[in-house]
Design a protein that fits this description.
315 residues, globular, 6-stranded mixed β-sheet, single chain, D-Maltodextrin-Binding Protein, domain 2, 11 strands, alpha/beta, 20% strand, 41% helix
Length: 315
């Protein structure tokens, strides 16, 4: 618990005993903590909080804002949050170590939001000697990028770091490149680097899931469904009114409104259930991790990806 708490930024507390949905707020609503990163991709959640949409649905939601990468799902595993938001390639490895982690459905997808940033003076992937990466989607994208360009990932030093630190490493000359989402891609572009592509250029596309631990979910499916319904409605609002979403993101996590408005169209905000296509793509991701020796075994996809859950509880 101490380690998990240290990894969480901007949280209001780190006491699991007061955060599960069996507890109630002063207004008599179940309290649920949502763990998520701090970037524009979470605009629907920020907007829903700012507009009181979760409260209107009868749930008191508290945000656990993390440093990004796998930290959101790790917060669910640690019990400091009940629902986490992570990409498929970030959550899948965690489902090996925590087989009770469940993907409830998709709330966004993109092949444009994560960008390749090269240090000024690096004009070709062949010049890269050192890259920085976050875990999960970042590491998956890094390996796919190198292989796409005919580079053995073992020939490149890959340094694991957190998103806020990576642009500084590039500016210092400690790394040659990285692949990351906003605002950290733009930070690198402004500080000694240049944006050289997007993950879709080398065949990577992510879906972002809502995730919960089965031990909590089995007794709280109605509450989880209410939360997902709100997220689905907020997805529509972000698409129809990106300026409002940018304003809410600024109010919640101080993201610059002009930058947020610019990058929101790079993401498709739409909620849906897990499909056969998701199972197929997840198997491809897991097989890639296994081939690259980034994973020792596969999670049980038929158990961890809850096909039909969204249609039953959140639609």
């Amino acid at each position: 618990m101490t380690v998990a708490c240290a990894a969480l930024l901007l949280t209001t507390a780190c006491t699991a005993g007061t955060t599960d949905s069996t507890g109630v707020s002063a207004a008599g609503k179940p309290t649920v903590r949502l763990a998520l990163g701090v970037d524009a991709s979470y605009a629907p959640i920020y907007l829903a909080v700012e507009r009181g949409m979760f409260a209107d649905a009868g749930v008191n939601v508290e945000l656990v804002k993390t440093e990004g990468g796998p930290a959101a799902s790790e917060a669910v595993t640690a019990g400091t949050a009940q629902i986490g938001l992570n990409s498929d390639s970030t959550a899948l490895p965690l489902m090996v170590t925590n087989p009770d982690l469940r993907a409830l459905g998709v709330f966004q997808t993109s092949d444009r939001y994560l960008k390749v940033v090269l240090r000024d003076g690096i004009d070709s992937p062949k010049q890269i000697r050192t890259m920085a990466s976050i875990g999960g989607l970042g590491l998956y994208s890094t390996h796919r990028y190198l292989l796409h360009n005919g580079i053995d990932p073992d020939s490149v030093k890959i340094v694991e770091s957190s998103p806020p630190e990576i642009p500084g490493l590039l500016e210092q000359g400690s790394i040659d490149a990285y692949i990351l989402y906003e605002p950290w891609a733009t930070r690198g572009d402004e500080g000694g680097g240049h944006i050289a592509g997007r993950i879709g250029d080398f065949g990577v596309r992510y879906v972002q899931w809502l995730l919960a631990d089965q031990s909590w979910l089995k007794d709280n499916e109605e509450v989880a469904g209410k939360i997902f319904k709100v997220v689905a409605e907020a997805d529509k609002l972000v698409t129809s009114d990106p300026a409002a979403a940018a304003k809410a993101s600024n109010a919640q996590v101080k993201l610059p409104e002009d930058q947020t408005v610019k990058v929101l169209p790079e993401i498709t905000f739409a909620a849906r259930g897990i499909t056969d296509s998701d199972l197929t793509e997840s198997k491809k991701i897991v097989d890639f991790f296994l081939q690259q020796k980034l994973l020792k075994k596969s999670p049980d996809l038929d158990t961890t990806l809850l096909k039909g859950w969204y249609e039953q509880h959140a639609k």
